[in-house]
Amino acid sequence: MNKVFIIDGDKFSNFKGFCKDFSDIVLSGKYDWHGSLDAFNDILFGGFGDIEDEEQYTIIWRNSAKSKIDLGYSETIAKLNEKLNNCHQSNVEEVIQEIKDAKMNKGPTIFDWIEETILDNENVTLILE
Fold this sequence. Notes:
Helix content is 49%, strand content 13%. By secondary structure, it is of the alpha/beta class. It has a 3-stranded parallel sheet.
């Protein structure tokens, strides 16, 4: 039987809160994930917290509809502005366009980025509740 980790959208209301809850639940508090999606992908693959390399496991995301709102465009704009302040000059125009799109409620949100990253990892089964 594979491991099951339960994330509850009622326990957080922003991306920082999601990162903390994910760190507490999936990484068992052994590591702190600070929001890098590249690091998130690495973590999902295994070798951190209680997940072994290439281990099959399930993430159940309760109250995911609330999280979809909480990690929606407003939170995405904040994350993209942070990215803009730290990105290489060659990426500035692309990030500015992503911010413009998010301000018009277009394009992916943080929730979408997280969901896609999880779904792209064949070791993980995601159940949205």
